[in-house]
Amino acid sequence: MKALSTLIKLAQAEVKRCQRALGEAQRLHARALTRIADLDVRIAGEQAFAAKAASAWSTYGGYAAARAEDRRALNAEAAAYAAHEGVLREALAQAHVALKKLEKLAELDAARATEAAARAEQAALDETATMRAARARLSE
After folding, report:
1. pTM (2 decimals)?
2. Burial level of 97, CB count in 10 A (0-12/13-18/19+)?
3. What are the backbone dihedrals phi and psi of residue 53, each rounded to the nearest 5 degrees, phi first?
4. Which of 21, 53, 125, 137 has the most beta carbons within 10 angstroms of its beta carbon?
């Protein structure tokens, strides 16, 4: 039983570790998406400025090309974080399954121990009743 409780504690620690890792991956993914949105806002602002000023329009092409490369890099980063989240979700699900198996084993072990104790108590009561009946027959 002690080994099982140790295994349960280890499984609980693994679940918590997976939850923390998943939370961190989600935070990083959200940050990447925010950076993409910020980049889009900056590009739209530059487009609006370039549309108003003819002198700025000539340099906008180079700016847009550089920002397109930034956008591709951020999209790749966001996709990597999303994929990592998927892996971590699967690891978390497996850790939960392992924990639930161990908890079920502990419940079954406790039920068996309770059942064994009840059988032992019943055997002791039966023995006592048998001895009383034998004494009663002898005293008759």
Report:
1. 0.71
2. exposed
3. -115, 115
4. 21
Segment 108-119 shows an average pLDDT of: 93
Residues 121-133 have a mean pLDDT of: 90
Closest CA to 98 of 18, 2, 20: 18
**What is the Cα–Cα distance from 53 to 42, expressed in whole angstroms?**
16
Per-residue pLDDT band for 53 (boundaries 50, 70, 90) equals confident
In whole angstroms, give the CA distance from residue 67 to residue 52: 20
d(CA 86, CA 80): 10
Per-residue pLDDT band for 57 (boundaries 50, 70, 90) equals confident
DSSP string, the chain: -HHHHHHHHHHHHHHHHHHHHHHHHHHHHHHHHHHHHHHHHHHHHHHHHHHH-HHHHHHHHHHHHHHHHHHHHHHHHHHHHHHHHHHHHHHHHHHHHHHHHHHHHHHHHHHHHHHHHHHHHHHHHHHHHHHHHHHHHHH-
CA 67 to chain centre: 36
